Every structure is written in C-alpha cells, then in structure tokens.
Amino acid sequence: MKISVIGCGYLGAVHAASMAELGHQVLGIDVDEAKVASLQRGVAPFHEPGFDDLLVKNAQRLYFTTDMAAAADAKVHFIAVGTPQSADGSADMTYVNAAIEGLIPYLSPGDLVVGKSTVPVGTAQRLSESVVSSGAILMWNPEFLREGFAVEDTLSPDRLVYGLPEGESGDAALAILDSVYELILAKQTPRLVMNFATAELVKVAANSFLATKISFINAMAEIAEVTGANVTELADAIGHDSRIGRRFLNAGIGFGGGCLPKDIRGFVARAEELGVGQSLDFLRSVDAINLRRRARVVDVVIEELGALAGKKIAVWGLAFKPDSDDIRDSPALDIVENLARAGARVIAADPQASGPARKRIEHAGLASSVTLTDDHHESARGVDAIVVATEWNVFCEEDPTAIAPLVSNKLVIDGRNTLDSKAWKAAGFTYRGMGRS
Ligand code: UGA
C-alpha cells in the first residue's frame, strides 16, 4: 500500500518508519526542511531507541519530502501533526487544519485520511465535510505510543482504536485500515471500532487517567511528607490490589512531556466549551498537584542547605523522562531553572537532552548560572547537593562510592525515588527522597 504521513515529529516519523517496516511504501511529509533532510539521510532528528535502525533498514520503502503534492501518489494519508497548547490551555488546531487543507487538493476518490493527532472531541466531525467533498473518507485512529518505547508501541500496540463514520464509507475505511495494519492484527491485537467522538475521547481519557494516577500518588506523597509515612511502600501495598495496579504510581517530581500536561489542559478547555466544565474540575487539581511537586524539590534543597546563593548544585536529568531527549514541559528543566533563580549555580547533566536544553536556558536568561553537560560525573565535582530529576539507568545504577570523593557536601535528593537509598547512605550521603520522612 502507498501511504503518506503528514507531520514527522515523534509520532509521525516513527509511524512512517513503522509502516515501512510493515512492508508499505511510505512518504513522510513535513514543513521543516532540516528535519526532512535528516530523515531522508536516515538520521533520526531526535533520540528514540530503535528508530535509527528502522529508518536505515527500511530506506528503500521510505521517502521524506516537504512537498505535499507528493501525497497524490498515496491511497492512505495519516495526519500526525502536533496540537500544542494555546495560551488559554486549549489545543492549537492550526497544524491539523493546515494539514487537511493542504492535503485536500491531492486526494483522489476512495482515498482514506486517518487522523492520528490528539484533538478536541468534535474535530473529526468538523473536518469530515471537506474531506468527503473530495471523494475521500476520514477516520480517527488515535495513537498511544510512549516516548522511549515508540517503535515497540507502534508495531505491537496494546490495542487499535478506529473512529469511523457511519454507513458504507465506515465499512470501506475499516477494510482499508485493516489491510494497512494486517501484520499487527495478525498478532491478535484487540481492534475496537467506535464513532468519531468516542475515539477522540478515548485518547484524552487515557492520558487524563494516567495523569490522575500520577497526581494521586503525588498527593499521597504530600501527606506522607507530613506524617512520617513512606509513599513508595504505600504504592507497593495498594498496587498489589489488581484493581489498582502498581504501574504509574511512582511518586516524585511529577509528569511532563508534550502530551500529558497539555492534553489534560486541552480536555478541560474543551469541556468548558461544551458546557460540562464541572465534569473535569478534578483535572485542574491533577495539574496543580503536579506543578507543586516541581516547587517541592527546591524546598527540600533549601531545607537542607539554607539560602541557595553561592551554593553549587548538580541536577541529574533534563529530559521529561529517560530514554528521550524531549524537554517539553520537563519537570527536570523547570527545577534547574528554579534552583538557578533561587541563586544557585547549577550544573545539569543528561545523556541526551543537554543539547536541546541549551536553547531554553539561554532564552530564560540563565546561561551564566546554568552549565549543561552530558557527563553526570563531571557535574558532581565540588557540589553542595545532587538532585536526581530524570531516572536514566546510568543515574539509578551509579555507584555512590565513586561519586562521594567528587562532591564537596554529601547530600542527594532523589526526585524520582529511584536510587538505592541504603547504598547512598552507606557511602556517607544524606539521602532525601520524595514522599518519605
Ligand atoms: C504518554 C502516554 O503514556 C502515552 O500512552 C500517549 O500515547 C502519549 O502520552 C501521547 O499522548 O502521545 P509519554 O508522554 O511518552 O506518553 O510519557 P509517559 O510514559 O506517559 O510519562 C509521562 C510523564 O509521567 C513523565 O514525565 C514520567 O516521568 C511521569 N511519570 C510516569 C511519573 O511521574 N510517575 C509514574 O509513575 C509514571
């Protein structure tokens, strides 16, 4: 099958390469010339495990361009552009609208347009009229991939969700997408068929649930901090109840990234527009708890060190999660900035994200108080404290006895509750976790 993928960010580029891996001829289209040139050379423009290999392995079936006219050759067109957060919290639909408008002149009757972007409920219905007037069919097929596992999640998803129009065109869309995903469906992947609105809601509901789970455990961390309880032991204990489950109950500095934070805010904004804002009032609390965690870490540092002016602090982690160089809404980067604003000299280390972080630190006017490096050993030299903000394996597995001689004061603040506290204490460190007395 000839496929176009419009939008080549984390979602679109991985989707394009994965569709090629399934044996399709794939054309990736993006307005960003540098990104397209990099992908066309077989070089991933971002860090995502396994993605480079997929690009190289499938180079014969993959082509990247900035020219939307090239989409005329394809029968199935995936819309995978971003829906960033607008100033009022709602999802900015500029790129989705532009992608559909740009694509329409190149559609042929019987083509299938498949929306993958995360959109406010009602979007597919709104866009379908213009797609249908060109003789094509529109459907929505939300994506649930996690950064760091994007390739695996695309090729072996937990489930496939098809949001279909009613009637014959829905049947036709289903048959076409089934043939695109034939090899995935052959692995007994559950495929759930529903209407547009349900499919759109499934995506934001899933991200809202995950965000709620994380903020729930972080709220418990706040209680644990004033009662002498230990939130990790609490999470282990409640997680044994299979109705609750242990996953996404890791307390710490909270969630970030390009999805969870903006999706809950976009969902709240959409519910307000629909007159049911009250239904999602709890998501405002989820957001507020999450943002408090970033401030809490700075408070813990101040509790231990007093005023931060003149203090030197290493922050381990800049990316919003390990195995990614994505710094969008990263709690780690916010903490770096807040420590620097409080007067500290910060040396921040991340194996992948120090390059992407540099621009933001410069933009924030903090280049003179923040040093960025890939090397966490280097960052620890002569510091008064180490703050672990992203749980990269290299940090979690670090031998504290190798770090002890480097620092000038043995204090470690484990923002992700990920270190072996006993080993760090045995090496002479004062250990502070999150949600523990
Ligand atoms: C999230 C969803 O998990 C995906 O299913 C979804 O497809 C994606 O958004 C999207 O909408 O595109 P992702 O943003 O890659 O994926 O990251 P997550 O693995 O969900 O982690 C989000 C944040 O939560 C990270 O900052 C992570 O450190 C934090 N987190 C996660 C916690 O603080 N505690 C936990 O227990 C789990």
Q: Would you mind describing this structure in some detail?
A:
By secondary structure, the protein is of the alpha/beta class. Among the domains are: 2-189, Rossmann fold, CATH 3.40.50; 204-286, N-(1-d-carboxylethyl)-l-norvaline Dehydrogenase, domain 2 (Orthogonal Bundle). 43% of the residues lie in helices and 14% in strands. The strands form three sheets. It has a six-stranded parallel beta sheet with strand order 3-2-1-4-5-6, with helices on both faces. A six-stranded parallel beta sheet has the order 11-10-9-12-13-14. The radius of gyration is 23 Å and the shape is globular. The N and C termini lie far apart (58 Å). Bound molecules: uridine-5'-diphosphate-glucuronic acid. Uridine-5'-diphosphate-glucuronic acid binds next to helix 9.
Largest sheet: number of strands, sense, barrel closure: 6 strands, parallel
Bound molecules: uridine-5'-diphosphate-glucuronic acid
DSSP E strands, number: 14
End-to-end distance: 58 Å
Q: Can you list the strand order of the major beta sheet?
A: 3-2-1-4-5-6
Mean pLDDT over the full residue set: 97
Oligomer: single chain
Strand content: 5-15%
